[in-house]
Amino acid sequence: MTTFSVYKETALPGTLQPNSVYFVAPAAHPDLLEVYVTNADASTPHRHVLNRDEVQAMIDASISASASLDIVSDITERDALSPTQAVYVYVVDASGDATVNSGGATYLYNPDTSSWIKTSEAESLDVTLNWSDIVGGPTSSPAQIDAAVSNSHTHANKTELDLIGQNIDGEMTYNGTQVKTEWSSTGW
User: Fold this and answer.
1) Number of Cβ within a 10 Å radius of residue 90
2) What backbone phi and psi angles, to 5 degrees, belong to 101?
3) What is d(CA 37, CA 25) in angstroms, rounded to the nearest whole number?
4) Is 181 exposed, middle or buried (0-12, 13-18, 19+ CB in 10 A)?
5) Is the distance from CB of 135 to CB of 129 less than 8 angstroms?
6) Who contacts 84 (Cβ-Cβ below 8 Å, separation ≥6)?
7) What is the pLDDT of residue 65?
8) Which helix (H) or strand (E) holds 79?
9) Distance from C-alpha of 28 to C-alpha of 25, rounded to nearest angstrom
10) Which pLDDT does position 71 carry in this prediction?
11) What are the phi and psi torsion angles at 38 (to 5°)?
């Protein structure tokens, strides 16, 4: 039967004891606890629970690897890359891609399918649309719409129309005078 010794430390000792468990509360991070277990020869920790600095180093390495953006001249140069993980690549002249008329494009490499996925292209920055290319757009021409807007409340007889009103009894007036809507008659 193997007997284990247990040690509480603030730093992992330079010389370790065989078959031991070290609980280390590092001075720099007293709120954390690191655990190390040695084997029979005690030359190095045989197993240990990852500590804060190791976890942070893994996070930093992962972020820096995935946050990179490579810039290449053309599609041929992009295709010559041999990425082993997801990576973004900006291609300055992406016209070698049948879907790009001119200018650059950004691609994401998918390691699961060994393929490039276009995520954006520079030519879309300078988009010029024709009225007829708008799907579901109005059937009126731009000139008809402009005319309707500019004439929305104009009439050749606007001055006269502005004189039409109503008195307190709800009867129609013109220039403040009641408009006669029935014949007035007097007996013969």
Assistant:
1) 17
2) -75, -45
3) 15
4) exposed
5) no
6) 111
7) 65
8) helix 75-79
9) 9
10) 93
11) -100, 160
- Position 30 scores a pLDDT of 78
Query: How do the domains of the chain map onto residue ranges?
Result: 5-58, 68-126
Q: Which two tokens stand for residue 37?
A: 């277990």
Whole-model pTM: value is 0.39
At 187 the pLDDT is 66
SS3 of residue 184 by DSSP:
coil
Is the CB of residue 89 less than 8 Å from the CB of residue 76? no
Name the residue with tokens 């005690």: 42
Cα 50–Cα 11–Cα 41 angle in degrees, nearest 5: 75
Residue with tokens 């954006």: 120
Per-residue model confidence as pLDDT tens digits over 71-88:
999 999 999 998 888 889
The string of DSSP letters for 28-65 reads T-TT--EEEEE-SS-SSEEEEPPPHHHHHHHHHHHHHH
Q: Calculate the alpha carbon distances from 16 to 34, 43, 96, 182 in Å.
A: 15, 7, 61, 118
User: Token pair of 53, please?
Assistant: 């600095």
pLDDT at 125: 66
Q: 52 in the Ramachandran plot: left (φ > 0), alpha (ψ -120 to 50) or beta?
A: alpha
Identify the segments of the chain with pLDDT beneath 50: none
pLDDT at position 28 is 83
- Give the span between the Cα atoms of 49 and 120, in whole angstroms: 43
Place of tokens 């820096």: 64
